[in-house]
Amino acid sequence: MIHVKDLRVDYDTVCAVHDLSLEVGPGEVCGLIGPNGAGKTTTMRAILGLIEPTYGEINLAGVDMRERPRDACRAVAFMPDFPPMYDDLKVWEFLDLFASSYGIPRHDRNAMIDRSLDLVSLPEKKNEMVATLSRGMRQRVMLAKTLISDPKVLLLDEPASGVDPRGRIDLKNVLKRLSAEGKTVLISSHILAEMTEFCTSVAIMERGRMVVSGTVDEVRNRVMGGGMLVIEVIGGQADDLRRIVAADPAASGVEQTGASSFEVPYQGDAEQAAGLLAALVGAGVRVASFSRRKEGLEELFLKVGAKELS
Amino acid sequence: MASRFDIVLDNPILTKHARSRLRRNRVIPWSIVVVTLCAIVCWSYYQINQLSGTTPLTLIIMLQVVTLVFAGAGEIGSAVGGARESGILDFHRVSPVPPHWLAVGFVLGAPLLQYWLTLLTVPFAVFLAAVGPAGWQGLLAFEFPLLLAAGLVHTLTLLGAMISKKPKAGNRGLIGLVVFGLFLGQGLFFGVQYMLFDLSGRMARIDFFGLSVPWMPLVVAYELILIGFLFVPSVRRMRSDRAHLYTKRQAMAFLTTLMFLVLGVTWGLQDVDGVVLVLLYVMMFIAMLLAATLTPDRSEYIKGVRRALRMGRRRPNPWSDSGVNRLGVVVLCGIVLIGTTIAWEVIEGRGEDGAAAYSQTIAIGVLTIAYVGLGLQAAQLFMRKYGQTVFILFLFFAWLVPLVIGAGLGGAGYQNAAFTIIAVSPIAGVLLSTGILRDAPLEMSIQTVRIASLLPAVGFTFLFQFLLEMVQRRIDRAVRGTSARRSPDPFDDVFGVPDKEHDPELADPIDGPMASASKGNA
User: Is the ipTM of this complex over 0.90?
Assistant: First the structure.
């Protein structure tokens, strides 16, 4: 659905995006992560055709953005971090403007407006002037505007910025629903903890380059080396545990973090982890808990950032 | 089903403006103000028994000018400037609405209230025309130029708002427009009106390539064509803020059309002296403006080179790539050369000086266009963002300073030296090279003056062509060098990504475009 290949964007002497490739499939919610100035917004704007790239292929919903930009735009909706709006319109008029822009027939527009306002929990504001809305409400109206054309591809740049907790819950629900409906979502945000909950894939950018991308588990495996097993045992059986863990080729050492708790850096998959658990139990180690710690996007981002700085 | 009228009937921007501009709380107070003003004019002149004179009608027309032309232009400027500055224009750009629909939506939609207010004045104007000496023809003689002026000013305002680096500066431009309108536009307005209708109210006629046609349809056609070509850059900027105002093809079409239209109305001026000269000055000015719109800055050229390398070429495509202007400038020069030569050979005819009468003059004009186009690009490539300023400074020294020095020398009695130095500037050099002052009682050598006017044109053209080529080669080398350089990626050791997997160019070192270009350069 979003296919970007070898995208390069130059501003004067600065290369803002350097030969970036990205693939986001149907039903995928991809988090575009990176520090300020990494090139996230430039990438999004180039994908939308708002910035002319130096070169590169951009394909949205199967349509080449350079050859048929109008057709590609028909399938895409965009929401920036600080949404500009027409203050001299009513909320329904603002939504109607974009419904009309996307070619929705007149007789369907009212129902579409009601539906999208329901999705963002703002049906009562339909006849209010946009100028009277708070920042959070404007953000929600903008989300409604983004959804009104029922796009196949959504590009959201910091959609949760300035939104109250209720709005964030709505946003999360909307994103989950969009994913379930098979929509493709590329989302950039600094609130990484929340993104962990709805992103199915992640792309980390740094200084205009794509550092790593893939499903969250793939990226976790690549960045954190497979993750960490957290094991708690009953009684002082540390020696037995160390012996059995040392025999597992997927494990690389044991670190005791408490009186009866241990952390094991582990490269193996779920099958191998289950084998290790069975070996521990079989050897008489009384395992109270056995889990794989899954790092969130914050940890992944920090880890990548630390490597980059080093 | 979409129809061709949907650009007006189902234009989202037009609908948006119809909603926001025609709200009751704006329309009613302004309507009351305008109707009251018109009523006061009629009542006042009725009281002094001058209702049947031309003054009350003129006042109503002036109210229309202020409302439709200036207030309407102000609304367009603020609507477009606001949309650009807030960023909401980007939403429209990424919607499926075509850019020309957006431009039409803004130019027709923003002044909707002003259209309505102007419409309210029309019954008063008709009444005053009926009871006064103007009659319906007199009224039309006022209203047509007004509508044409409104269309032109609105289009110019849209263009100004779209190309201004500071979108809100469109309003500052409007102040200039008002000053222009009040002090100069009045003359233009009544001049056009005079040309459309003579004093007896009959429509004036003019020869167009030898055919006698009424003035009014011709003026309307000219103005529509002009509006169309001024609309093109606005549409291009609606698509992208960084687009050039014209493509090479559009600039050529604009200049060719303009040349055709000007030749058409001057066709009947057989044996009139100075036609070629006026045509050359006008076309030089327009061609230089068009050349400037085609001229890329340094980053655009670098982008062009990168694109070219990507496609396996050494240089950007001279025709289709916006990173170079040379071919476009050459074609613009060619159009001016052909047009002025036709004017010389067919309209004005060869003068007593034989074949050389205008040959040098036209050459100077054409070469001036060439060196402006080439020099501006060379300056922008050499000096990045300061290039334009430095080039304007160069034009100041090359075009204006000789005039000042020459005037000083002339005042001191050194006439020969004065004319020679003045001729260095193409502003005067084009004129002096014709030998127009040959018979004047002045101490000047016509041959020296001609050489003085021709040399800078030839010299600067070669100089700027050389500098442009040099700086382009330098940038080409730098871009190829950067593209071929393999800096170690800091993340490769983190993720264990082999170089050739991470950098696709490395996977194909022999045939990869960057590598080939790099080797070619070496």
Answer: no
pTM: predicted TM-score of the whole model, two decimal places: 0.80
C-beta of residue B72 within 8 angstroms of C-beta of residue B115 = yes
* Any A CB within 8 A of B88 CB: yes
Tell me, what's the pLDDT at B502? Answer: 40
Whole-number Å distance between alpha carbons of A26 and A182:
5
The domain A226-298: what is its CATH number? 3.30.70.100
CB contact set of A77 (below 8 Å; sequence gap of 6+): A145, A146, A147, A149, A151, A153, A154, A155
Residues B288, B325 contacting (CB under 8 angstroms): no
Chain B residues inside the 8 Å CB shell of A304: 491, 494
Contacts of B242 in chain A (CB under 8 A): 51-52
Of A294, A115, A43, A296, give the one whose Cα is nearest residue A194: A296
pLDDT over threshold 90, residue B378? yes
The answer to whether residue B310 scores a pLDDT higher than 70 is yes
- E strands present in B57-196: none
pLDDT value of position B174: 57
Q: Is B306 on the interface with A (CB under 8 A)?
A: yes
User: Cα separations (Å) of A176 from A149, B208, B214?
Assistant: 18, 68, 68
Share of chain B above pLDDT 90, in %: 42
* Lookup: tokens for B310: 């990507």
- CATH 3.40.50.300 domain position(s) in chain A: 2-221
Picking from A59, A44, A33, the residue whose alpha carbon sits closest to that of residue A9 is A44
- In this prediction, what percent of chain A has a pLDDT beyond 70? 95
Selected residue of A48, A78, A86 to mutate for chain B interface (largest B Cβ count, 10 A): A86
Residue (of B221, B219, B173, B10) closest to B104 by Cα position: B10
- Which chain B residue has its CA at the smallest distance from A102's CA? B96
Determine contact, residues B236/B99, Cβ cutoff 8 Å: yes
Q: How far is B506 from chain A (nearest CA, A)?
A: 13
**Separation of CA A193 from chain center:** 10
On the question of pLDDT at B183 being above 70, the answer is no
A135-173 residue pLDDT tens: 888 888 998 999 898 899 999 988 877 777 877 887 888
**A2-221 adopts what CATH topology?**
Rossmann fold (3.40.50)
Residue-level pLDDT at B468: 95
* SS3 labels along A37-62: CCCHHHHHHHHHCCCCCCEEEEEECC
Contacts of A222 in chain B (CB under 8 A): 495
pLDDT attached to residue B194: 56
Tell me where in chain A the CATH 3.30.70.100 domain(s) lie.
Answer: 226-298
3-state SS, one letter per residue, for B210-261: CEEEEHHHHHHHHHHHHHHHHHHHHHHHHHCCCCCCCCHHHHHHHHHHHHHH
What are the start-end ranges of the E strands in B12-160?
none
Q: Above 60 in pLDDT, residue B486?
A: no
Average pLDDT in the A38-46 region?
Answer: 90
